Amino acid sequence: MSSGIYRFGPFVLNVGERLLLRNTAVVTLRGKVFDTLCFLVENAGRLIRKEELLQAVWPDSTVEENNLSQGISTLRKALADGARGAAYIETVPRIGFRFVAPVTRVSRTVEQVPSVRPSSAERQPSEHRPARQEIRYCRTKDGVNIAYATVGNGYPLVKAANWLNHLEYEWESPIWRHWISELTRHHSLIRYDERGNGLSSWDVQEKEMSLAAWVSDLEAVVDAAAPEKFALLGISQGGAVAIEYAVRHPERVSHLILCGAYSRGYEHRASPRRLLARRALETLVRLDWGKDNPEFSSMFTSTYIPESTSAEHRKWFNDLQRISTSPQNAASIMKCCDAINIRHLLPQVKVPTLVLHADGDHAIPIEEGRILAAEIPNARYARLSTGNHILLADEPAWKVFLKELGDFLGWEKAKARAKVS
Known about the structure:
By secondary structure, the chain is of the alpha/beta class. The chain contains 14 helices and 17 strands. The longest helix is centred in the middle third of the chain and has 17 residues, at 272-288.
């Protein structure tokens, strides 16, 4: 794609700055939706076949056509396509799409346009870059479509979903790309978006949100993508999902890794006063989630990644709120997390377990990690010196995490066996 600037209707599209303006207001589009618009505008008037558009927008991934259809639908809503006679994107049934609005290429830069994306120079490329991820769908027993991705080679490692997942957006994220990079050095990594989140079905009723439903999501993904035996990683709320799965299916799980996890949700560990404050926060989530409210977004970001963060980290995490789920779903997921109580299951875990927890975790208190380590039989415990709930690439705790994980999963032994063979 070029770095040009284009005008159509009341819009200005600045490809290089990854910015779309409607008059003077910023129109926020998530990564692949923005890329779709760029490709269509740059080829305005030409019929773009679905296969060509998929290859242009997802060159490093294998995705299904419904990803494209969902992106086009999101794009039409953002452009108010069809409202008051406006028409931008024409669909040619079973063939493809055409951008039909008149487009003018601007030869000069647009004045007074804020830069809202980090420059490529600010992004630090990871040392190991997986070639591509394959995104597919499976269906749960209660009929919910779950998106999952497989990338890398080696012994399978399944990551249980946690709140604020988005398979596609995480691929380039400074919050998660080092996780993907390092884990795929040693494993075939299987990730998924839980119901109501990311690329999975958002059309989920609040009554369909529960810990049991999240375990069902994991079961569906494992049945579709994982071999008979695999290691299981649970981060944050994903820890409870992973624990319950390991208790139900101990024959499938070879290793259980819990990072920043907990067995007791907010309802079961907080004082009555703090619980009232939490309920007030859930109300704010329903009202302000995903809106252009810097104070609200920053409150969540500073809870999960308060230390060693750059402007790029904060921008990506703030955007992830809007991109990953709806306000209603965010509040429902939050409420279900608060209701989790699986402490009684901890003595029933029979698989080798590693518990890692940040000593200054602002989201999940370290006491929760200690409970897991003390009550899961023979669990191994590692303290991480950081205040971040999600470990960032440049902090010392990330190196400790990798060392502990590698020792637990036998990375060096696997490397030695590979050399011998």
